[in-house]
Amino acid sequence: MVGVLRKFTYRTAQIGRVHRTAASVVLCALAAFFAPAPASLQPAYALENAPAKGSPQRCGGINMLNELAATEPRVYRHIRSAATKTSNANAALWKIEHRGRPDSYLLGTIHMTDPRVTTFSPRLQSIISEVETIALEVDDVSAAATSSAIAKASRLVIYTDGHSLHDYLSQKEFEKVKKTLNSAGLPGEMAAMFRPWVVSMILSISSCERQKVQAGQPVLDMKLANAALKRGIDLVGLETIESQLSAMSAIPDDQQIAMLRASLKFADRANDTTETLLQLYSSRDMGAAWPFHLALAKKAGIDERAFKHFQASIVFERNDKMRDAALPLLEKGGALIAVGALHLIGDRGLVNLLRQAGYTLTPIE
User: What is the reported pLDDT for 60?
Assistant: First the structure.
């Protein structure tokens, strides 16, 4: 009995350490869109817009699609074919019109610090100066708010039922997880505590990007938040941190493990996968992002069916909820809705969902 209590006390102390020391790393990981970010969760941001001294402007890396075109042309052609079939994927900024209301706008973002995406275009700068509301996925992603959310929903982030990540991975896979967490500033012994989806997010962020975030370089979403605060206009969230954590944890455990194994395969190429997504976003070619992600998973031996629930929970279901939250803002008019770019595209993306709701959407850039 004493041994059980000691183990419980140690586990409780570890959970407290996770809340205090892991929050910033987990938040940085959640900034990745696949993953796409999956989907599209944000880190704890600093308010400064200027890059910190000594932090790089870019993290390097290569466009892996060019590599695939040369080495695996069949895979490349499949990605391109899927991209061309994805609707509404060639613009990131859209004008929204409806029944004489003031114009609103929809912006697809990518949650990274690279100046290629954080520099406002003249058109976006003009829009920001005109609107009365800016809506992000989450309006308060401070370290305090996110740490509090993780503390309240710790079971969604870490194992609290006696299981551990080590139970589901080979020793070689687990050692690689520990090594990655160490490089992210977390003690390796914490690796067993995290649920697979959290580790997948951490693996998706290169050490370079992590350093930039921790040094205070803002991602595009934070620059938009800063602009709203500077103008004194409304800044609102379409979701909460808790709802985003719930969406990630809703992915079945077996699929979380499959996703993690795919992430482990390419963990050493985080700069390259990041650069690929950055170039796709910059060239307004986001229809290729999801097929590219699935192609990498297949190369890692993971069937794309393992990502079906991920796409449903992290993209489609959240699209419906974000549409519902955005509609009152659009009915009033004069709003800029800014969410992860993959939430805009495809038949179940926000562009199409808002058109179905009676709004006229026109691509701007």
Answer: 86
